[in-house]
């Protein structure tokens, strides 16, 4: 780890303004950039010297010897201000500034902690529970007090028995906190699905935020980082990461690395695996919604995983129809995968539950994880000339696809196949909740 590259956009909002210049000596935890409107403070994740400053990133040459100390955030008048000073963001991927999110109170409302680890392969939230369950619960109480919620539910898949047992013990005596045990299917961690399946039993519309249910949903690692800010005066300098793939020859590996310095390059993370097998692509994030990355890209405050997939097979120009899901890969991402397999895309359809924003092209699911059936869409793609079908669907949607496509003699490829095969997981075809890993 000789070079650290810190993006000046670590959250929703604008790029930060740097407060350092080339040649400056910096310490771990030192404030090096401040928000320009909506955004979060950025702190150095290492001791080192500023190598480059642009309007998009700051590069730091890390000292060979790193101190265990760090520059603490200033004293604050409130816990909310501590969270803001520390630069805490939503660590689950959305990256909304936590200070701004918690500044909107929900009097007598409901706080949901997302520990569902929605994406298959990812394991770092569960690993953090194993090491820091009690601190997480203290963080929950801090946030509950800030937002004025009357109760808290921790959403976690029931398959994670060790983590569930530790949380049950940690919340003993906290009568305002309970566990919401979830099925092992995708996308159980989607915030509207969490609220729908909770004791609120409320399905929000696609354009509604949890506030419409007088609720806030926040990621488990975000809670932990908030507790660090409040108790330790520690700024956000590190991120928990799952690293996975055939990292030890042909052996499937799923590793968790806690507290990776923000700005660490993907290539530096993978130097720990000198026997790593040939891969098809590197994914930053999870198999469903992650994006293709390369060895030069840095870890951010919202990064969740680095996954090396198996090599892609060649379809030798076969015609492929794409069935996109609001909970999975975008059509653009699916085209990228099709190109990697030498396939010709002949049609694109959205799942019947997808509501697509015409301006952004982004989609939201009417009822996340509960499928209305895909026969009409599959027949349309076959009529377009598809010889094979590529889908990015959730567990239930994939089950409905498998009820139709084989009867039409349409082979199915799932966008997560290559990551799942690389990690020893069963590929998504027809799956029951207990075997969807």
From TrEMBL:
**Keyword terms:** 4Fe-4S, Electron transport, Iron, Iron-sulfur, Metal-binding, Repeat, Transport
* Pfam families (UniProt xref): Complex1_51K (PF01512), RnfC_N (PF13375)
Q: Which InterPro entries match?
A: Ion_transpt_RnfC/RsxC, Nuo51_FMN-bd, Nuo51_FMN-bd_sf, PR_assoc_PrdC, RnfC_N
PANTHER family named among the record's database cross-references: ION-TRANSLOCATING OXIDOREDUCTASE COMPLEX SUBUNIT C (PTHR43034)
- The UniProt record lists the keyword Iron-sulfur: yes
Q: What is this protein called?
A: Proline reductase-associated electron transfer protein PrdC
Q: Does the keyword Iron-sulfur apply?
A: yes
Start and end residues of each NADH-ubiquinone oxidoreductase 51kDa subunit FMN-binding domain: 83-225
The transmembrane segments are: none
Gene designation:
prdC
Taxonomic lineage: Bacteria, Bacillati, Bacillota, Bacilli, Lactobacillales
* RnfC Barrel sandwich hybrid domain location: 6-60
What GO annotations for molecular function exist for this entry? 4 iron, 4 sulfur cluster binding; electron transfer activity; metal ion binding
Any one GO CC term of this protein is: membrane
């Amino acid at each position: 780890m000789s070079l650290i590259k810190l993006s000046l956009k670590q959250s929703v909002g604008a790029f930060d303004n740097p407060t350092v210049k080339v040649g400056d000596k910096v310490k771990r935890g030192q404030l090096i950039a401040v928000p320009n409107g909506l955004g979060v403070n950025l702190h150095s994740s290492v001791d080192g010297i500023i190598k480059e400053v642009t309007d998009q990133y700051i590069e730091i040459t890390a000292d060979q010897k790193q101190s265990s100390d760090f520059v603490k955030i200033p004293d604050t008048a409130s816990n909310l201000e501590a969270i803001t000073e520390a630069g805490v963001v939503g660590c689950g991927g959305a990256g909304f500034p936590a200070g701004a999110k918690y500044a909107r109170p929900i009097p007598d409302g409901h706080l949901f902690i997302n520990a569902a680890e929605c994406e298959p392969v990812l394991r770092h939230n569960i690993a953090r529970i194993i090491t820091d369950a009690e601190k997480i619960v203290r963080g929950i109480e801090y946030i509950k007090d800030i937002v004025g919620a009357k109760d808290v539910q921790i959403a976690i898949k029931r398959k994670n028995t060790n983590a569930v047992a530790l949380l049950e013990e940690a919340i003993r005596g906290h009568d305002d906190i309970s566990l919401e045990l979830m099925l092992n299917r995708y996308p159980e961690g989607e915030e509207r699905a969490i609220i729908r399946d909770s004791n609120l039993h409320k399905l929000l519309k696609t354009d509604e935020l949890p506030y419409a249910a007088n609720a806030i949903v926040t990621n488990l690692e975000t809670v932990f980082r908030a507790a660090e800010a409040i108790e330790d005066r520690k700024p956000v300098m590190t991120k928990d990461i799952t690293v996975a793939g055939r990292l030890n020859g042909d052996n499937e590996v799923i590793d968790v690395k806690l507290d990776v310095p923000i700005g660490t390059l993907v290539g530096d993370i993978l130097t720990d695996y000198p026997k790593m097998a040939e891969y098809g692509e590197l994914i930053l994030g999870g198999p469903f919604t992650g994006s293709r990355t390369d060895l030069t890209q840095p870890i951010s405050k919202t990064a969740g995983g680095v996954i090396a997939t198996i090599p892609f097979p060649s379809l030798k120009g076969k015609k492929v129809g794409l069935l996109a899901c609001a909970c999975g890969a975008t059509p653009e991402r699916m085209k990228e995968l099709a190109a990697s397999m030498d396939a010709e895309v002949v049609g694109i359809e959205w799942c019947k539950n997808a509501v697509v924003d015409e301006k952004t092209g982004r989609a939201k699911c009417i009822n996340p994880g509960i499928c209305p059936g895909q026969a009409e869409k599959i027949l349309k793609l076959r009529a377009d000339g598809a010889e094979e079908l590529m889908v990015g669907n959730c567990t239930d949607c994939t089950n409905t696809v498998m009820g139709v496509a084989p009867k039409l003699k349409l082979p199915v490829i799932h966008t997560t196949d290559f990551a799942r095969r690389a990690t020893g997981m069963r590929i998504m075809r027809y799956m029951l909740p207990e075997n969807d890993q």
